[in-house]
Amino acid sequence: MSQPKSTGRPARQNVEFPSAGGTAHGYLARPAGGSGPGVLLIQEWWGLDDHIADVADRLAAEGFVVLAPDLYGGNVAHDADEALRLMRELPVPRGVELLSGAVDHLLSLPEVTSDTIGAVGFCMGGGFVLYLAAVEPRVSAAVPFYGVIRGELPDFSRLAATVQGHYGKHDQSIPPEQLEALSEALEKATGRAPELHLYDAGHAFLNDQRPSHHPESARLAWQRTVRFLHDQLG
To answer: Which residues form the Dienelactone hydrolase domain (predicted)?
Structure first.
C-alpha cells in the first residue's frame, strides 16, 4: 500500500483484508502526515455508517491511523428494529474473531507506528471494545462509549489494556449497578481501577446524527479520549 501524500486532511479509503477465514471490509483513515499510532474503531449497532466514518476522519485528524471494520458485511440499519436484528445475528465470539483479524491488518500497515493499538467503540461497539481487549493483548488502550454488554461480563484476567469509559447518567440501557459491576470486575482482575466518566446525558451522546446528541458532553468526552489515546500509544 502506497503512503498517502500530506494534503492537510486525512487520507481515506475503503479497504479489504483477510479476517476470520474470509475477506472483511472496512474504512481506513490516515493522518495528513501519513503515519501514526493505530486505532480500531468499532461501530454502533447501526453498522458502518456515515457517523462512524466521520469519527474515523476526526481521529485521523488527531494523528491516528484508524481502521473501522464492517461487522455487518455491508448492511446498515435504518431503524432500531433492524439494528437489533443485525446485532443479534452477530454472536459475540464471531464479532471478536472478525475484530482480531482487523487488529492483524491494522498492525501490518507500514504507516502504523505503534506496536499495540487503541480500540474505541460505541454502543454495541463499546461492548466489543471490552470483549476484544479481554482476549487481545495487542489492545493497550480500550475506550468504550456507552458500551452495551450482552449477558455476563467477560473474563478480564488476561486484560492488558488500560480502560477509559464514557457513559451517560441518564442512559436507560446501562444502569448504574452495571457500571459498578464493570468497574469492580476490571479492578479485581487487573489491580487497576478503570477511568470511567459519567456525563449529564443519555445514550449515544456523541452521535451528532441522533436526537440524543449532547454537544457539551461530546466535546469533553472527545478531548479526554484523544488525550488518553496519545498518552497510551504515543
So the answer is: 26-231
Q: Tell me which of 105, 123, 166, 214 is the catalytic residue.
A: 123
CA distance 211 to 32: 32
d(CA 163, CA 138): 14
Cα angle 56, 59, 63 (rounded to 5 degrees) comes to: 130
Quick one: which H or E segment has residue 16? strand 11-19
Cβ 12 vs Cβ 27: under 8 Å: yes
Question: What is the predicted pLDDT for the residue at 159?
Answer: 97
- For 63-102, how does the pLDDT look when each residue is reduced to its tens digit (9 = 90+)? 999 999 999 999 999 999 999 999 999 999 999 999 999 9
DSSP secondary structure string, 122-191?
ETHHHHHHHHHHHH-TTEEEEEEESPPP-SSPP--TT--SEEEEEEETT-TTS-HHHHHHHHHHHHHHHS
Contact 65, 37 (CB under 8 A): yes
Q: How many CB atoms neighbour CB 188 within 10 A?
A: 10
Which three cell numbers, joined as nine digits, stand for 69?
471494520
Catalytic: 203? yes
Report the relative pairing of strands 36-42 and 112-122 from DSSP bridges: parallel
Ordered by where they begin, the domains of the chain are 11-233 (3.40.50.1820)
Active site residue 123: yes
